[in-house]
């Protein structure tokens, strides 16, 4: 019988099925990376909604698992050596789940490092830049009179889209014909940029035909359709 009570987060979000992987998340671009991954690999899991409306991510219980106070985070009751492990940072979680299950990561060393490289590119570039653009274009920053921050992030987002577009020229996915965790890391952010952030025209998205084509293929995957709704908002 698995016991996760040593993890303080389970006091606020009790595990109904402690033998299953526990996901603490919200369907945001970083959150859905992990729910999509879990849907793709078919590992049983129990999702828990972390509501930003009630600032759940800053609660002591949540921060006991992620001191950085951001979703997503997981507990895998069956971690390395069979012992439970808690993890945060979506890129690390994707890599962990891919290695654990031997899925969505090329088996050869070169392919593995190249996949990691594109996951890092998303984590250090695409996510932070698109996120800042969202702030200055759609959220509180849109009321700032000085448009230079917005324009800077729009230009950088456009540049990054160009890098992705070039990599996707003649390739179905970022690593070629094989769909990997690099795609799962990247496309929720591209979708958000032109959807929720409403920045399609601002970044000239229609110039990036390869990105648009891969995004279309991504959102058509049944696991992506499901993962985008998990955890269900209350
Ligand atoms: N680098 C982190 C970023 C996580 C992140 O920024 N999560 C956002 C949602 S997409 C969040 O929890 N925001 C809540 C807050 O900032 O209070 C990751 O990839 O896991």
Kindly name the structural category. alpha+beta
Q: What integer value in Å does the Rg equal?
A: 18 Å
Spans where pLDDT lies below 50 across 5 or more residues: none
Oligomeric state as shown? single chain
Choose one word for the global shape: globular
What does this structure look like?
With about 230 residues, the chain is α+β, with helices and mostly antiparallel strands. The chain is about 50% helix and about 10% strand. Strands 2-1-3-4 form a 4-stranded mixed beta sheet, with helices on one face. Helix 2 links the parallel strand 1 (about 20-25) and strand 2 (about 45-50). Helix 2 (about 30-40) runs parallel beside helix 4, helix 2 crosses helix 7 and helix 5 packs parallel to helix 7. The chain is globular and about 55 Å long. It starts with 8 loop residues before the first helix and ends in a 7-residue tail after the last helix. The model has no long low-confidence stretch (mean pLDDT about 100). Bound molecules: glutathione. Glutathione binds near residues 31, 52, 89, 90 and 123.
């Amino acid at each position: 019988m698995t016991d996760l009570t040593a993890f303080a987060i389970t006091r606020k979000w009790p595990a109904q099925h402690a033998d299953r992987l526990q996901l603490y998340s919200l369907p945001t671009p970083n959150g859905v990376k992990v729910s999509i991954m879990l849907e793709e690999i078919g590992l049983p899991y129990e999702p828990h909604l972390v509501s930003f409306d009630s600032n759940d991510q800053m609660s002591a219980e949540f921060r006991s698992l992620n001191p950085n106070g951001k979703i997503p985070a997981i507990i895998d009751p069956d971690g390395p050596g069979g012992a439970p492990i808690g993890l945060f940072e979506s890129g690390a979680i994707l890599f962990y789940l891919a290695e654990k299950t031997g899925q969505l990561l090329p088996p050869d060393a070169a392919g593995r490092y190249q996949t990691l490289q594109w996951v890092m590119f998303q984590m250090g570039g695409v996510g932070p830049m698109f996120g800042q653009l969202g702030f200055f274009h759609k959220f509180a920053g849109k009321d700032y009179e000085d448009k230079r921050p917005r324009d800077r992030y729009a230009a950088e987002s456009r540049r990054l889209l160009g890098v992705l577009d070039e990599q996707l020229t003649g390739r179905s996915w970022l690593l070629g014909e094989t769909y990997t965790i690099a795609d799962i890391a990247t496309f929720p952010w591209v979708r958000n940029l032109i959807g929720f952030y409403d920045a399609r025209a601002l970044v000239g998205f229609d110039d990036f035909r390869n990105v648009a084509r891969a995004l279309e293929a991504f959102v058509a995957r049944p696991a992506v359709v499901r993962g985008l709704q998990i955890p269900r908002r209350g």
